[in-house]
Amino acid sequence: MITYEVELDRILADVMRAILAMPGHGLWRFLPSIPFKFMTSPTVAVLLEDIALDNIEQWINSPMALLSAAPEVNKLRYKLKANFDESVFLLTALANMAASKFRRGSGSRLTNLSALEQGIALSVTFLLLDVAYVVSLGEYLSKPTREILDTICDSHPGILSFILCFVEKNFEEMGEMAQFLFRGLPLYEWDLSREDFVILKRLLTTPPLGSRRSLLAQYIFSSLPWTQGIVILAYQC
């Protein structure tokens, strides 16, 4: 027996696949309107696998592994090149996906819904950062992607720690765009971890004092909400 849940999943997934299958016709502008919050968690994961990441369970369960993955793991690089003029609409749809709270699908192997949502958010964040700040698509996509990432950070403030790890890993490719990125993110929502301070210390102490890495760390430190009681006493530099 086909349930309402199954039928709604099928319809929404078919709509998204149909739109993606017709690049260059102005239809991708409708992608951000897809209501991911009405989808079940396994369907969202399968769609993300179709669009951008093979072996999606692997990345959702261990999203930090994406930072060391081979460049070709991101299928979004090639999909956007096929319809570059409408690429922002797909990136916005993925951000909406990352910011959504999903329904739990019956029979899902991914049983921890909050962990699944966090894994999807981290995976999408990696995809957006990669296409906007590492590959050659970045000149056009860097500003809108920064605005899109702000939406994900509002739903998952911990994403900022992942972004910091990504930036440190890819600083050579990003250069001055690293500070451009952080200037548009909600740093006032960031609950820094011990690991975040370790990374910021490495960046801050990169010689000379005026290096791009050091200037980035200086900007982040100067923008943190110290008056809100950030506790750093547990970390001794």
Question: Would you write up a description of this structure?
Answer:
Helices cover 57% and strands 0% of the residues. With 237 residues, it is an all-alpha fold. It has two domains: 4-156, no CATH class; 180-237, no CATH class. The longest helix has 21 residues, at 113-133. The protein starts with a helix and ends in a 14-residue tail after the last helix.
What's the SSE blueprint?
Blueprint: H1 4-20, H2 41-51, H3 56-61, H4 76-81, H5 87-99, H6 113-133, H7 138-155, H8 159-169, H9 171-174, H10 177-182, H11 194-204, H12 212-223
Helix pairs in contact: 5-6, 5-7, 6-7, 6-8, 8-11, 11-12
Keywords:
237 residues; mainly alpha; 2 domains; globular
By DSSP (H or I, 4+ residues per run), the number of helices equals 12
Overall strand count? 0
Summarize the amount of helix as a percent range. 55-70%
Radius of gyration: 19 Å
Low-confidence stretches: 106-111, 231-237
Structural domain count: 2
* Major β-sheet annotation: none
Structural class: mainly alpha
How far is the first residue's CA from the last residue's CA?
61 Å
Strand content: under 5%
The run of helices and strands is HHHHHHHHHHHH
| Mean of residue pLDDT values | 86
Shape: globular
Task: Please summarize what this structure is.
57% of the residues lie in helices and 0% in strands. By secondary structure, the protein is mostly helical.
